[in-house]
Amino acid sequence: MTIFDRTVNRRRLLQGGAAVTAGLAAPNLLIRGAWAEEFRNNPGNAKSVKFGFNVPQTGAYADEGADELRAYQLAVKHLNGEGDGGMMNTLKPSSLKGNGVLGKKVEYVTGDTQTKSDAARASAKRMIEKDGVIMFSGGSSSGVAVAVQSLAQEMGVVFMCGLTHSNDTTGKDRKRYGFRHFFNAYMSGAALGPVLKEEMGTDRKAYHLTADYTWGWTQEESIKNTTEGLGWQTVKAVRTPLGAGDFSQYITPVLNSGADVLILNHYGKDMVNSLTQAVQFGLRDKQVNGKNFEIVVPLYSRLMAQGAGENVNGILGTTNWHWSLSDEGSQAFVKSFGQEYGFPPSQAAHTCYVQALLYANACEMAGTFYPPEVIKALEGFEFDGMGNGPTLYRAEDHQCFKKVLVVRGNDKPTNQFDLLKVVKEVPREAVTYDHTTLRRRARPLQGLSRPRRVPGRAVRSFGPAAPAGVRRTH
Amino acid sequence: MSTATIGSPSDRSARSPTIAGSASNRADHVKFLIFAAAVLTMPIWLSPVGAAYPDLVQKFAIYGIFAIGFNILFGLTGYLSFGHAAFLGVGSYAAVWSFKLLTMNIVPAMLFGVLAGGVFALLIGYVSLRRSGIYFSILTLAFAQMSYNLAYSVLTPITNGETGLQLAHGDPRVLDGPAGAGLPSTNLFGVETVGYSGFYVCAVALILAYYLALRITRSPFGMTLRAIKSNQNRMNYTGFNTRPYTLAAFVISGMYAGLAGSLMAVVDPLAGAERMQWTASGEVVLMTILGGSGTLLGPVLGAGIIKYFENIFSAFNDQVLSRMFDFLPAGLGDLMVDLVQPFVGDGWHLTLGVLFMLIVIFLPGGVMEGVSRVAGRLRRVRSDRTG
Amino acid sequence: MDAVVLQALNGLDKGGAYALIALGLTLIFGTLGVVNFAHGALFMLGAFCAVTMQKLLTLSQKVEDTSVTFFKAYKEVPYLEIWFGDTGAALIDFAVPLAIVLTIPVMLVVGLVMERGLIQYFYKRSHAEQILVTFGLAIVIQEIIKSAFGANPIPTPAPEAVAGSADIGAWLGVGQGLIYPYWRLIYLAFSLAIIAAVFAFLRFTTFGMVVRAGMQDRETVGLLGIDVQRRFTIVFGIAAVVAGLAGMMYTPILPPDYHMGMDFLVLSFVVVVVGGMGSLEGAVLAGFLLGILQSFASMNEVKAIIPGIDQIIVYLVAVVVLQVRPRGLFGRRGVMEG
Q1: How far apart are CA B318 and CA B37, in angstroms?
Q2: Does A131 lie in the same domain as A50?
Q3: Could you give the strand order of the β-sheet that contains A400-401, starting from the edge strand earlier in sequence?
Q4: A424 & A365 share domain
Q5: In chain A, fewer beta carbons within 10 Å around the N or the C end?
Q6: Residues A297, A238: one domain?
Q7: Residue A119 sits in the same domain as residue A267
Q8: Whether A24 and A106 share a structural domain
Q9: Residues A46 and A124 in one domain
Q10: Is position A440 within any domain?
Q11: Is residue A363 included in any domain, yes or no?
Q12: Hey, is the C-beta of C189 within 8 angstroms of any chain B C-beta?
């Protein structure tokens, strides 16, 4: 029953046509003619444009979600020319004008992903079908990001990923309509490797506890590759259900396994629980194989450090961004966010804020909201001043390449927010990989659902320039 | 403390649906036609309340089917299953696998969904129905939790765990031939079934499901089921073996759930394990009770109310609220926002919980009982006036 | 061998929590005949009593945090530390055990209010309706806690003195490797003590005697002129306190969040059913038994033989028990035998 939407879209198209005539006085709008094309949720000549922020408000990642929402609200403020502008002032090159996007005031709707793929898709569908968002963003789980991203593709609406760290998001499961600013598990491994070698040597035995879903799998694999490359052995990798709560039954076997490093591929609530319990079981006071037992948490965040309290002291991990960075962009953002809310932003907040700004900037660059043009503007976009140094939005997989931070739980915090100490800023070159490497690797999933590897087809699935927004207007 | 307490609640539902009779037969048909018309025109009459968009109306229809099916078990026999979501999940997985392996045509997917739901229900029902009352509830709960936990862990090759089972490029789809550039979408012999066309598929399924439930309720089989509800012991004492009947009801309701699950995959080809969690089973219980268990229309209403809450209320944020209370003076407006806020947005579960408790305490027959009470009172007032 | 002992201890710990919740459930069911699906929420409320205690003790003065330079930030310095220095800090450190002075009265009041305000109207209604209304209540309690405390787990550490782990191996002289956290040992001892106290209370006091008599034959006891109802209401309060204490002491093991009650509830019901509806001894023993089984099932060696067994073992046991011995392991003949 596509008629319903067709008619709506036709009407929108007419409105768009009207805007062409009305907009003659504003030549910058007419740089490209493409924007008059028929596409989903075309704002036409409306005075405002709507963004959708789909974040976990309940579930294991709810606090990250709350912080993401704060960042989005701040971004909308800045885009509309309110507040001090934050990173709008430091983004280079920038086409943002501080009068909304393409002259339209930015409004937003919010939704709760509940950290579940199903709920996230329903909520995203509501935003697209009912609220008419031109772009949506958010998420704190890779499972959700992957599921929502394919919806974005089907619907022809751009999805700017929030916090998602699985390699698959821009690897195996990447989509033309999905973009990720956040780093991924591969980069964590690449950044962490040299530091691990320096601190713990090359003769170690690692034991993994892994959250049992796409993110956990890819992180386990990436870290394993890194550590095994250093000469470490992997004693065992155990999958734990998401949200297990009490991890003692998984931690006790570690005690007598002969391993001397525990790698926790957990995030959010799971990480807080598993780390706390690992410390309770005396793992950190243990001596194994004549070495101090160590714990590594490859993906770290300040919110988690807050949750785990003193247990994070001295524990190594990586993070996308930290508020204590001293570059201009970071400082502007922290100042702006801190003044608004009274505490510094988390890495989740940072990536979401940046994503919102980058999308708006791409629209300005393209001179249209027409997704294929916006996508073109984002692809290969090279920018600076967003807190991670010079950054590239790689065209091939829509993954950002930038500095990665190796951090350590701070044992001597100078203030209440100073929970992580940056050990090393790993340069972009060190974490860059070829876009075909992650794509081709075998999935951790064995058996039935392993995709048949037909050479060429996989790449084609991502590449076709079929403007899905035009073709599929249901 | 007899065993039949659950099986014989103060049988409120017996009041509402009248037992088969020729007079009520015509009324049934009229009601059915009104129902069908209402379902098909949902996109029109729901638009004033902001609910007329494909995803939500699809949900209304799908959960309506789920709740109707649940009601065939709970409403008629009084057996309270806390594990019905398992059948929904199995139906979804079956449908997605049908999309992956066979064809994007929805007919086989739905057939497999119903079949999988039915077979799974037969297995679980056979074991669970050996007990009644709270033991039955615990057994179904245990089975559903087992399915859920397994779907998340060792069965990931079949379920893709937390990430959810999705279509992929490498899928064989032996009946469809090689796919084009993008992922194919579900279709009914060539007609895409997404958006509103997906809704109409669900709506037709809902209408058929409703009709079937109507026939079941009015049939001698339905009578037997209600008799089991009112006093299973007595039935047993008279030498009547009730188990084949309860098992049949269980399997039918499992097939309904399987159908609902497969429809979820039809409108959005993805299946996640969380569909099987016991809280999801709890949700269908809420729907049925809220609308009115034992009635035909109640469960559909309940499903609609809950899904409406979930989608509309949870989207209320400060921005929306302050716009809503704009007309009030500033101080009062802020106060209203503060008062309302805990109950909407991420607090909509609270509203649901409170509403549900109120219903169970004051209106055990659900919305349907409320409607009939109000109608009864009106009639009395009118007859008082005329008389 | 060490691994086995450790897993057994893990199981006993978890079993302790199951047993305490199941004990309360059984008490309520045995006295009032009510199936209380909100009992998990009571466990969670107890945990949040500990959180509240911690919050109360760390009530703070806002002092501008000069170390944060980017923006105006405030540091919270607890009044206790301002007023009493190290003594104050020590008090804060002992927030969880001190929470007992908060948990007992709060949970008693919650239990009594719940019974008088809601449960008493459901004595005569079906079990299905009891389940439903208490399920609704559980959602409401849970959501209120969520809006008050947020959705993420709140760290509530054990006191510094017992934060580490005990070298049981050295105590027993069986060598290295047998290490177990102090707090978990304390939890085990605590749960055993509570269980013993409840049993002693029921066995050795007049009050307990009347309650037991009332459980057997309520009408006769009522005919003797004893107000059974009032005592049963108090029993409900006691059950709430037991669940609350179990939750409170569990917080250092598992940082509490609003949802923890539901997770424990399902398992506790399974425990009650396995132990036998209405049997206090059954509830306790089944609690420990299932806890241990769950721990052993999650050993890597076991999982290697039957993959996924750790995920389903508890439910599997419940199904088997209900099939072969429907009144549960310790259930009396004729009680809820269905």
Answers
A1: 37
A2: yes
A3: A382-383, A391-393, A400-401
A4: no
A5: N
A6: yes
A7: no
A8: yes
A9: yes
A10: no
A11: yes
A12: no
Nearest beta carbon to residue C71 from set A255, A256, A335: A335
Q: Looking at CA atoms only, how far is residue C310 from chain A in angstroms?
A: 10
Q: Does one domain contain both A283 and A360? A: no
One domain for residues A89 and A116: yes
Torsion region of A462: left, alpha or beta (phi above 0 gives left; psi -120 to 50 gives alpha):
alpha
Instruction: Answer yes or no: is A463 within a domain.
Output: no
CB contact under 8 A, A246 and C73: no
Residues A454, A103: Cα–Cα separation, whole Å: 46
Does the distance separating the beta carbons of C336 and B134 come in below 8 Å?
yes
Reading chain C (338 residues) residue by residue, the pLDDT tens digits are 677 888 888 899 989 999 999 999 999 988 888 888 899 999 999 999 999 999 888 888 877 777 776 677 777 788 888 888 788 888 888 888 999 999 999 999 999 999 999 998 988 888 888 888 998 999 899 889 988 887 777 878 888 888 778 877 777 776 666 788 889 999 999 999 999 999 999 999 999 988 888 888 888 888 888 888 888 899 999 999 999 999 999 998 888 888 888 878 878 888 888 888 878 899 999 999 999 998 888 887 888 888 878 888 888 998 998 888 888 888 766 555 44
How many contacts does B have with C, using Cβ atoms within 8 A? 131
Number of domains in chain A: 2
At the second CATH level, the architecture of C2-56+101-324 is Orthogonal Bundle (1.10)
Residues in chain C: 338
For chain B, the 3-state helix, strand and coil shares in percent, each to the nearest 5, are 75, 0, 25
Closest residue to C155, CB basis, from A245, A308, A416: A308
B5 touches chain C (CB under 8 A): yes
Q: State which residue of chain C sits closest to A339, comparing Cα positions.
A: C71
Chain A hits for C157, CB-CB cut-off 8 Å, are 309-310
CA B79 to chain A, closest CA, distance in angstroms equals 29
Q: What's the pTM value of the predicted model, to 2 decimals?
A: 0.82
> Which residue of chain B is at minimal alpha-carbon distance from C312?
B146
On whether residue A161 sits in a domain, the answer given is yes
Closest-CA distance, A58 to chain C, in angstroms, reads 6
Average pLDDT over residues B360-386: 85
- Asked if ipTM goes beyond 0.85, one says no
What residues make up the domain containing A275?
186-319+406-433
Between A269, A338, A414, which is nearest C152 by CB? A269
Across the 474 residues of chain A, what is the mean pLDDT of every consecutive 10-residue run? Answer: 31 36 36 55 88 85 87 95 90 90 92 83 87 89 87 90 90 88 93 92 93 87 93 91 79 87 89 87 85 92 83 92 91 92 92 95 94 93 92 92 93 83 92 76 34 32 35 33
Contact at CB, A454 and B170, closer than 8 angstroms: yes
Is B14's Cβ below 8 Å from some Cβ in C? no
Rounded Cα distance, C256 and C146, in Å: 11
CB A408 within 8 A of CB A398: no
A352: domain CATH number is 3.40.50.2300
For residues B262 and B107, give the distance between their C-alpha atoms in angstroms, rounded to a whole number.
Answer: 10
Joined tokens for residue A25: 């006085």
